[in-house]
Design goal:
Blueprint lengths: L1 H8 L5 H6 L3 E4 L3 H5 L7 E2 L9 H7 L3 E5 L3 H12 L4 E6 H5 L3
Parallel strand pairs: 1-2, 1-3, 3-4
């Protein structure tokens, strides 16, 4: 069961260490949700626009920690990024990750 959850939600990781190593925090919520609150220094690319931004994220060569409201959209974003060859992690809900990075 745990392996199934890991495959759904992506690799877990030491988010603080990833961030210190230069990982990008990518918030895949809508711009309105992002404006209502977000992790300092995070970037906002809504999930429905992510496919158009994958080349740029890959070019940056940095790991990406995806977040959203609950962890569902960020899991979908991680799947897209991994398929594009980007090192990606599901940070889950942005409010929970905020205290870890």
């Amino acid at each position: 069961m745990i392996n199934i959850l890991k495959s759904m939600f992506g690799k877990t990781g030491d988010f603080q260490a990833l961030r210190e190593a230069g990982a990008i925090v990518l918030d895949v919520r809508t711009p309105e949700e992002f404006e209502s609150g977000h992790i300092s220094g995070s970037i906002n690319i809504p999930l429905d626009q992510l496919s158009r931004q994958l080349a740029g994220l890959k070019k940056d060569g940095k790991a990406v920690i995806a977040v959203c409201r609950s962890g569902n959209r960020s899991a979908m974003a991680v799947a897209q990024m991994k398929a594009a060859g980007i090192e990606a992690y599901n940070g889950g809900a942005w409010e929970s990750l905020r205290s870890k990075v």
